[in-house]
Specification:
This protein is mostly helical. 66% of the residues lie in helices and 0% in strands. Helix 1 runs antiparallel to helix 2.
């Protein structure tokens, strides 16, 4: 739901940005709504990420690619 609302808000903001007659108050309002939406989307993403990593064991990071010749530095 938050992602859908964010997409709608982005469309509205794009319209405002392309409208040379948009007032500072309209732009300020759009920025405030974007900040609210971003906070919500960020909250959801962090929550989902926490749930995904809570039940899984993290794999070891892949080994760095070795330089030509196979020597390690």
């Amino acid at each position: 739901m938050q992602l859908g609302m964010a997409a709608d808000l982005l469309g509205h903001t794009d319209d405002l940005l392309s409208d040379r007659t948009a007032t500072p108050e309209q732009l300020r309002h759009a920025v405030a709504r974007l900040a609210e939406s971003l906070r919500e989307v960020h909250r959801v993403a962090r929550s989902r990420g926490a749930r995904l990593t809570a039940g899984t064991v993290r794999a070891e990071p892949p080994e760095r690619a070795r330089p030509a010749g196979g020597a390690r530095h």
